[in-house]
Amino acid sequence: MELHGRYRLERMLGAGAGAEVWRGHDTLLRRPVAVRLLRPERAAHAQAFLDAGRVTARLTHAGVAAVYDVGRDPTPFVVMELAEGPSLAARLGAGPMPWRAAARIGAEIAAAIAEAHGQWVSHGRLTPGKVLLTGVGAKLIGFGGELADDFDAAARDVRALGGILSACLAAGDGERPPAALTELVTRCTRADPAERPASGEVAALLGELADAANPPPEAPVPLRSGTARWTARALVPASVAAVLLLGAVAALGQAVPGGLPWFGHPPDVAAVPPAGTVPTPPRARPTRTATAAPHSPSPAASSLSPSPTPPSSPSPSASPSASASPSASRSVSPSASRSLVPSATPSKSVRASKSVTASRSPVPRSPKASR
User: 71 has which bridge partners?
Assistant: First the structure.
């Protein structure tokens, strides 16, 4: 069976006095849903059935089963969130319940009712069968309608919650509940609506009792032995792979010269002088120049440079020495080019050149010796 060409009914989950609940599938959004179908004998209440679905669609709370769609095909239906889990009525019939669990369930129911009352919506038919115990907490189904001008509707929901808490404590495991919880149940079930606490107050008190009864763990839960074993097994291949990779890199650096420029070369370390010392600046190299200085020439330089003195008559003893002038000029010229810097005394190179010239000049022979 398919409704509106979209919701396919798969199997029935339960049935109540006024409607049946089916597990369905939304073929458009591809998700499981719960579909409530109005019984044929309740056809006269079709409009109230659809109005209750539209009112519930305004509630967005974790403790309320969300409503997705309402319509007729031709049977009136309401498409809701699929809340999987047993009802509170089934849980009470299964065995005793500790008062701590009862306080936690009561706190979740009271929080959902307080949210509905803030939206001017009342449940109207709150019973253990309308509470589903899912994996994410208690969820309420079957909201009746708006508060409108009925000022006692919220108080009736609080009294119905007190009855649920009383039934949970009656099915206790023998441990005595705290006096604060027993007193709260008594206040919720009083006959006068004005003497009953508000749903928000009930939610706060039950939340404090539930938190005090179930404190959070102080230390984190250690890893299971199986998880630690698999973690150690995963680290072994990773370590082996890292060693093989380093070995391959080292082999490449040795086999291929220059393959890894950084392999085998220690990093350059800058020399830092010790503290308290002043670094010596590098000495500049002297440059040799062949240009004459602009100052007055030295006596050695003046003796080597040609002078414009008038020629004198050559003497017989000076003529042989004059013939050796080419050799003297060749021997003196290198030394003279290096000693062009002005100085106060004749340089050693000039004196050396004079001695060399004198040694190489021929000794004059007398006419008698030649004969």
Answer: 77
Class of domain 84-214: mainly alpha
Q: What is the mean pLDDT of the chain?
A: 75
| Architecture in CATH for domain 1-82 | 2-Layer Sandwich (3.30)
Residue spans of the domains in the chain: they are 1-82, 84-214
Q: In DSSP terms, which residues pair with 138 in a beta bridge? A: 133
pLDDT tens-digit profile of 226-274? Answer: 555 566 666 777 788 888 887 777 776 666 665 555 555 555 555 556 6
The overall pTM is greater than 0.70: no
Strand arrangement of the beta sheet that strand 7-15 belongs to: 2-3, 7-15, 19-26, 31-38, 76-80, 67-72
Q: In the block, which residue shows the tokens 């299964």?
A: 94
CB neighbour list of residue 161: distance below 8 Å, 6 or more residues apart: 106, 109, 110, 113, 126, 188, 199, 202
What is d(CA 344, CA 354) in angstroms, rounded to the nearest whole number? 18
Give the three-class secondary structure for 161.
helix
